Amino acid sequence: MNQTTKRITTLTGIFLGVFLAGTMALADDMENMNGMTDTSPGMGNMSSSAPVGHGKGVVEAIDRKAGTVTIKHGPIREFGWSGMTMTFTLRHRSSLKSLKTGDHVRFYVVQDSQGSAVITKIRPVH
Ligand SMILES: [Cu+2]
């Protein structure tokens, strides 16, 4: 390797280094922007693309004051949940009117921005 080749190689290395550093800085900026989008306040997470879980179960308890229903439910495939007994908040409290303890039900459930399970639709099945 003669002196000229060595210099060119070194210069290429420097250029490449600068170029890569620039690219990485750009990637960092974009990540930060995405971060800002993710943490933006409001109801942005409740878009129509949010997954909806489809559940089946038995009503174990109803709290009409709190607007919640406790359901022993089977697996909810969309969220990877196995069967369990848990308490759901109802988006529409009025849907409690048609329910009573012991009812077999089918329901749709979404997760709000805090990760709480909210039933958007529920109906008894016979
Ligand atoms: Cu559950």
How would you sum up this structure, described in words?
This protein has 126 residues and is an alpha+beta fold. It folds into two domains: 1-40; 48-124, Beta Barrel (OB fold (Dihydrolipoamide Acetyltransferase, E2P)). Helices cover 29% and strands 32% of the residues. It has one helix and five strands. The protein has one helix at 3-38, and strands at residues 53-63, 68-73, 84-90, 104-111, 117-124. A five-stranded mixed β-barrel has the order 1-2-3-5-4. β1 (53-63) and β2 (68-73) form a beta hairpin. The longest helix is centred in the first third of the chain and has 36 residues, at 3-38. Mean pLDDT is 77; it is low at 22-45.
Nutshell version of this structure?
This protein is 29% helix and 32% strand.
List key phrases describing it:
five-stranded mixed β-barrel, 5 strands, 126 residues, binds copper (II) ion, OB fold (Dihydrolipoamide Acetyltransferase, E2P), alpha+beta
Could you outline the blueprint of secondary structure elements for this entry?
Elements: H1 3-38, E1 53-63, E2 68-73, E3 84-90, E4 104-111, E5 117-124
Parallel strand pairs: 3-5
Antiparallel strand pairs: 1-2, 1-4, 2-3, 4-5
Bound molecules: copper (II) ion (CU).
Copper (II) ion binds next to strand 3.
